[in-house]
Amino acid sequence: MEHTLFHTEALSVGYDAVPVLKSIALSLRPGEIVSLIGPNGAGKTTLLKSVTRQLAPLAGAVYLDGRDLSTIPLPELAKEVSVLLTERIRPELMTCRDVVAAGRYPYTGKFGLLGDRDRAVLSQVMDLMKITDLADRYFSQCSDGQKQRVLLARALCQEPRFLALDEPTAYLDLRYQLQTLSLLQTLARERGLAVLLSIHEVDLAAKVSTRVACIRGQEIDRFGPPEEVLTSGYIQDLYAIDAGTYDHRTGSLELAPVRGAPEVFVLCGGGTGTPVFRRLQREGIPFAAGILWENDLDHPVAQALAAEVVSLPAFAVVTDQTMDRARALIETCGKTLCALPERAMTGLAAPLAELAQYARSRGKLEARHGL
Amino acid sequence: MKRGLLFFCCLLPVLLAACGETGQETARGPADLIPSLTWQAPDDLDAAEAFTLTRSQEGYILAEIPDDDAAWLVVPEGQPVPEDLPDTVTPLCQPLTDIYLAGSATMDMLVKLDALDAVAYSALPADDWTIPEARNAMDRGDIVYAGKYSAPDYERICGGHCGLAIENTMIYHSPEIREQLERFGIPVLVDHASHEETPLGRMEWIKLYGALLDREARANAVYEAQAEVIRALREPDSRKTVAFFYLSSNGEVKVRRPDDYIPQLIRLAGGDYVFDHLEAASALSTVTLQWEEFYAAARDADVLIYNSTVTEALPDLEALAAKNPLLADFSAVQSGEVYCTKENFYQASMELGDLASDLHAALTGDTDHLTYLDRLE
Amino acid sequence: MNAKQRYRAAYLLLAVLLLALLALNLCVGSVSLPLSQVWAILQGQEGGAGADILLRIRLPRAVAAAVLGGGLALSGYLLQTFFHNPIAGPYILGVSSGAKLTVAMLLVFAAGQSWARSSWAMIAAACVGALASMGFVLLLSRAVDRMSVLIVGGVMIGYICSAVTDFVVTFAQDADIVNLHNWSRGSFSGIGWENVRVMSLVVGLALLGTFLLSKPIGAFQMGEGYAKSMGLNVRAFGGVLVVLSSVLSACVTAFAGPISFVGVAVPHLVKSLFRTAKPILLVPACFLGGAAFCLLCDLLARSLFAPTELGISTVTAVFGAPVVLWILVHRRREGVA
């Protein structure tokens, strides 16, 4: 399946002849999931609307299977392309089943009555999205998350080959975020569905997408597989994050570190330090952490939150220099917290037990693990 | 505190009512109002009940219109206004000139009194008058159009030193106009002839205007002549049933209340008004009737009289039938006894006797010389 | 009961109500006709004055009230769906103001002319005015891309027409002003079979057309964005809806003057009865409901203070407004937006 299902050429989108994005060149193959990421107001929604004929493009063209989108009659297009919009709809007195059934519109007859095939698709999709128990409830009485799933089900009922979703994970709790993205992956893989979606959860984008498109300024800055696009520091830059940090390896967001000379030294590793760091950050206490190898679980968080990190390259042996630095910090800090249990401080980590001893001897050691 | 307030609020209407009553108990006659003059008994009017005239030996006349709480003292030319004239009585010094006439029913009376030169302003444009003398006076420029009654041209009226404004009861819908005129020092007399219950009562108002304009002899003569015409009408051999009605622009049937002056004229003329049985809940002189009701009552009426407004005279029977196909069924239409009022019907307020006589002629089949009605062919 | 049972029961109720009110309207009046006599006359077995009144005055009037009431309710339903606005009614696009303007112009400027005297002149004038308003709204709909802006446009057109009407009225005789005022109150009085034939044709065609458009109307209930994504040409369809609803309300206004509240209240009542907004069910149901509602109001208008007849708008407002209020409060409590 190498042919391109969907692509744009020199596309320019915007409202009232004012371009929001220019020279867009996106493409999707069947079975691909492409995520659009970018700051608020970058134009993700505008772009999604323009490629689904909700909004007329200002310049350039959009092609589906090689055909210019604007030449395809709307009823035919409805069988190929379906959308999930961010607009809140207020369908009066419609049950969830009615809303999902609306997706069969392009396929039903003169009066919109559902046939056997329509009903089959309907129940299958509702099962997939796990909304069968919502079927008879009024749409307007559902929670935002439920509504989102119903509308996604509706989009799937249209049996499209290309699906455009505007923030499909908004309003969804963790369970349903994962469920939805998994479902999209499954459909992409098994049915060759091409999905273009905009998403704010960059970490999820990295996990689910075949390719990621980053909108920056008035253009698509990067378009490619997540591992090539989402490099160190890029997201921080793209979103102009100034009140915290984003780690591209873990996809983890951390709040801003407390500035100042460290008051506490945290002996940790293997993930034991992270809760401590976060608590100290919440309490507004600047701290130092060590000795952390670069491949340690605590390392990224320490880098984000600590005033100073005593760190070593992965798998390296502890040097004297490192020990001296650690001891110096234990001296200057008011207290030392040891988050590691004794039995963990063995092997390569044996010097940490030494540091703990040292801290005790200086009267600075406070409670051990279990803090 | 709250209870005291509540008590006071309950007391207030009682207090106010008491004040009102005391006011009524001591209703004052002319002798009480203007004791400096020597008053005679009020004039014995023939049929009018909405105004009274009381004369003083010195030549003054007190005209009162109780429905309006209005009292006017006619001050003869050359005589002074009495010093003890209370605020509730408005002096009108003769000769009255530059009258602003906004009550169209009064025009005919003034014309008959030959007092048209006292009028300077009219609330109807020249073309809207059907009385020829009035129209001519306006064409000559002796009388000038000064705005509708509901929107008078104050500048024009005040600039010309208006002596009196004669309005009709429509002014009650726009009290601010009356107040404005009075603020400019122009007395406003509201003609209540329409409140009279009989046609003779309506016509007797000419005596009031005669008193105001020093044309009393003439007023009496004109009135007597019309009263005589009415008295001379002979009861016909057989009374015919008459329906007097019109169809509004949206198809509704409008008839006059049985106690209105036109049905009374019809009765005087020897006809029976088919809508006499109506107990209308309307304060207006015209009642909207349902088609069924109209059909049931008027289908077999002997005579139909269609009340055309000034602008809508029907040229022939076909035009009437075009308004509603059901009319073709009416026996009067089939026998051809259908009349339509002429444009002079309404403003001929001082010719009601002649009007009754015309109706009488129509009902008795003498249709060659009708003045106010047209027979529809 | 499940949905299908509910719908069947609701339709039955509406049908029964309609027939009952029709029968009442034929029996009640200044000349009271018992049902047996009515039946005899309808079968052609009786003649006379009673038959005349029934067949030539009451029956056409009742049919007119039903047809026009149904048309108004249908127009209201269309506009409420189209604009997603629960207080939209047949006159929200300025149709009645346009009709009133041309009627005022006819009364004031052409009163003396011979051609202005027939009842068809008023009807034609009202029709012209209503359709002209509709034309302006259609032009507007092509210039804007959000349909909700049309409401503002319609209201503005209404204001303009009212202002021009006031201007025309300053040159009017008092009698004309009264005539215009009477016309604005709305009335079924004086409607004959000729009128009924024309209005039935127009309303019948509009009803059929609307029913055939049930599917696109349903798509519209999902909002313009989704409707378009499902293949509906929103702008063209919007134009068709405007035309249909305007023709319906123009027809009513032309024959009976502006009648308020039927178009706003009846769709709400019917929706509460059916508990759904599906066009394929509601289009006929609104028509039946509107017919019944109008028959009831006309019955009250003519019989409450007989022989005086109340203006139909007076009665519909007394019934319509509280119903709408109750529905809105009730639905708020239910949590249905």
Largest interface, chains and sizes: B-C, 37 and 40 residues
Secondary-structure class of chain A: alpha/beta
For the sheet with most strands of chain B, the description reads: 7 strands, mixed
Computed over alpha carbons, the radius of gyration of chain B is 24 Å
Q: N- to C-terminal separation of chain B?
A: 79 Å
Question: How many strands of chain A?
Answer: 18
CATH architecture descriptor text of the largest domain in chain B: 3-Layer(aba) Sandwich
- Summarize the amount of helix of chain B as a percent range: 25-40%
Quaternary organisation of the protein chains: heterotrimer
Can you describe this structure?
The complex is a heterotrimer of chains A (371), B (377) and C (337). Chain A has 371 residues and is of the alpha/beta class. Chain A contains 13 helices and 18 strands. In chain A, the strands form 4 sheets. A 6-stranded mixed beta sheet of chain A has the order 7-8-9-4-10-11, sandwiched between helices. The mean pLDDT of chain A is 90. Chain B is globular. Chain B is built from 14 helices and 17 strands. Chain B has 377 residues and is an alpha/beta fold. Chain B has 2 domains: 198 residues, 3-Layer(aba) Sandwich (Rossmann fold); 140 residues, Rossmann fold, CATH 3.40.50.1980. In chain B, strand 7, helix 4 and strand 8 form a beta-alpha-beta unit. About 2% of the residues of chain B have low confidence. In chain B, strands 11, 12, 13, 14, 15, 16 and 17 form a 7-stranded mixed beta sheet that branches. In chain C, helix 12 packs across helix 13. At the B-C interface, strand 14, helix 11 and helix 12 of B face helix 3 and helix 7 of C.
What descriptors fit this protein?
heterotrimer; A: 371 residues; alpha/beta; six-stranded mixed sheet; five-stranded antiparallel sheet; 13 helices; elongated; B: 377 residues; Rossmann fold; 2 domains; seven-stranded mixed sheet; five-stranded mixed sheet; 14 helices
Write the layout of secondary structure elements.
The complex is a heterotrimer of chains A (371), B (377) and C (337).
Chain A: E1 6-15, E2 18-24, E3 27-28, E4 33-37, H1 44-50, E5 59-64, E6 67-68, H2 74-78, E7 81-84, H3 96-101, H4 116-129, H5 144-157, E8 162-166, H6 174-191, E9 194-198, H7 202-208, E10 211-216, E11 219-224, H8 226-229, H9 234-238, E12 244-247, E13 252-255, E14 264-267, H10 273-283, E15 287-293, H11 298-305, E16 308-312, H12 320-332, E17 335-338, H13 350-361, E18 365-366
Parallel strand pairs in A: 4-9, 4-10, 7-8, 8-9, 14-15, 14-17, 15-16, 17-18
Antiparallel strand pairs in A: 1-2, 1-3, 1-5, 5-6, 10-11, 12-13
Helix pairs in contact in A: 4-5, 10-11, 12-13
Chain B: H1 2-25, H2 30-33, E1 39-42, E2 52-56, E3 61-65, E4 70-75, E5 89-93, E6 99-101, H3 104-112, E7 119-122, H4 132-140, E8 144-145, H5 154-159, E9 164-168, H6 175-183, E10 188-191, H7 199-203, H8 206-212, H9 216-231, E11 240-247, E12 253-256, H10 261-268, E13 271-273, E14 286-289, H11 291-298, E15 303-306, H12 317-323, H13 331-335, E16 338-341, H14 352-363, E17 373-375
Chain C: H1 3-27, H2 35-42, H3 49-83, H4 95-109, H5 119-143, H6 149-169, H7 174-185, H8 193-212, H9 214-220, H10 224-229, H11 234-256, H12 262-274, H13 279-303, H14 312-334
Helix pairs in contact in C: 1-3, 1-13, 3-8, 3-11, 3-12, 3-13, 4-5, 4-6, 4-7, 5-6, 5-11, 8-11, 12-13, 12-14, 13-14
